[in-house]
């Protein structure tokens, strides 16, 4: 039975957000007997509620509260009110995600040491490393049922993949396969195998793809230690005179302001809302926002170097059939400055339906150059490029006092400029992506610009020294011992890999730490 | 980004759709626009018929798909036929006709080749009017389920068991 805790109960851990970070943390703590109240701004949607329709699903699940943008990134022009494509629902963006589950490469934990100082970049080593994360990755891979780990078979390749694989091999790439995916190739953990329906971004109606919404959340609730409050929007974290946090003010589903007391508060609202909440919680004692003595809250926003390459052929491909992200080339993920940039990138197949293809292939474009591409939709293949981008001081989330959300709270402004390293890497990736498709006879290729951000990282980064970042090696804020950050905003640097497996591994590890410290009465 | 809900379910009175041949629109009578071959007809309530016919032509010239009949462009822009939107559309189309006249045509519709109209559109592409119409079409046109089969897109697949037994890996020419 799901628990129900009093607002005045100051023994609970309050978690804000129930996505990859918060949802997993909530369950892991509940399993250990820790009592948790999870506040989630969105509603609850399960496989029977998901719809195989791109815009309708977007309307159902996406975070559409206002945000603003600035900077030279094209998203600020084409999608000025939608800097990120993420979810507002129980389970967070794990309802939308494609399921690619990759570990960081060992050297990526030590970006500054490996790459050396890069002008204009705010590189730093993580305070943790591959050896320390290894057992947590093991647990995360088991939880998610990641293919090609623990003896789980890979998924079968769809049309989009088979063509991509052929091109990759023709180019001499060797690290090519159908990916390490949190998608069941056979029944696993009580969930179905993948039926290749092709709507992974719209929520998996078979439950074949791991999502916190129908795994960790209900399991946590079943312990009797977890209460998830849906449609509860955290507005402000309060603290006492000793500088410890005391609880969270939130707007409940009826729009009433409530105050939930807490022993510990964990922030996991994804990389825009987490820093926004800390900044909106400024007080006389912490005038620059909570946990912000370093001035780093909101800074070093990373979104991965991304882009896509689509290509048309003289024969049908029908890329939309089957898993949205159906395979990977990892040969370019290495660090090899000889290519003209530091860090590396992955190439992963991707398919969009006609409605999203029209919106994202070349935003703002019109006329026959554009429409003949869509006319060839059935003959089209696609891949997504994802690589490490440089943390920069000025790429940051700030409060926009001129724009308020429905609760009257200043919204997040997201400023982003590409670093020259990001641009050099993207151009290299466009060339290689084009070459993959040309090797199988592409008649035209399309270097498609980045979509609104799906990977949002770094705005409360982890650092050894309190002056360099917001949280320590446990995700605990340097300034306030009972305030934690539990989502992708902890990332010190982004690495080339899709981030969620690492977010989940960090959440499992953080739960272990918090439970231990609570038992020892040191928290 | 303009997120305009899909426009579905037109009543017969609003839209009479028959054959799918595309053609220049024809003003049939007061408040009534139709294609010359009567492939479609639409009774406007707030926008002048000539203006609406020009808007439909403009929509096709922005996103020309020769295999999509005019009816779908009509559906995509008919949302502007309202008391609030009509004055802005009238103003925008007047500017479009003025741009056509500056190039020696009597009006936007009085052009021959598509390239003439594309030139005219390029000259106004930074205007709020053009961007409003273009942005609205991204969802207004491409989110009509009825146009998806023209692109080969199969839409919803869960109710049919996904593609695991329906060709997810049927590529045969590699
Ligand atoms: C289309 C798409 C495809 C993706 N594919 C992959 C992939 O293949 N592999 C991969 O690794 N990653 C992928 N990702 C990224 C992945 O989904 C995210 O990295 C991950 O979900 C982030 O976890 P998080 O905990 O930081 O935030 P989220 O999962 O976004 O969770 C944050 C939650 O906090 C809630 N919240 C925010 N503010 C408040 C507030 N003030 N009060 C209460 N609740 C609040 C939100 O509603 C949300 O539910 C994809 C993302 C998208 C959009
Ligand atoms: S392709 Fe597989 S994982 Fe994706 S939505 Fe369909 S069944 Fe789920």
UniProtKB/TrEMBL annotation, chain A:
Matching InterPro entries: FAD/NAD-bd_sf, GMC_OxRdtase_N, GMC_OxRtase_C
Glucose-methanol-choline oxidoreductase N-terminal domain segment(s): 88-305
Domain Glucose-methanol-choline oxidoreductase C-terminal positions: 391-507
Membrane-spanning intervals of the chain: none
Sorted UniProt keywords: FAD, Flavoprotein, Oxidoreductase
Source taxon at top rank: Bacteria
Flavoprotein is among the record's keywords: yes
GO molecular function list: flavin adenine dinucleotide binding; oxidoreductase activity, acting on CH-OH group of donors
Pfam families: GMC_oxred_C (PF05199), GMC_oxred_N (PF00732)
Keyword Transferase: no
Family label: Belongs to the GMC oxidoreductase family.
Protein name listed in UniProt: GMC family oxidoreductase
TrEMBL record, chain B:
Alphabetized InterPro entries for the sequence: TAT_signal (IPR006311), TAT_signal_bac_arc (IPR019546)
Protein name: Twin-arginine translocation signal domain-containing protein
Source organism of this protein record: Rhodovulum strictum
Lineage: Bacteria, Pseudomonadati, Pseudomonadota, Alphaproteobacteria, Rhodobacterales
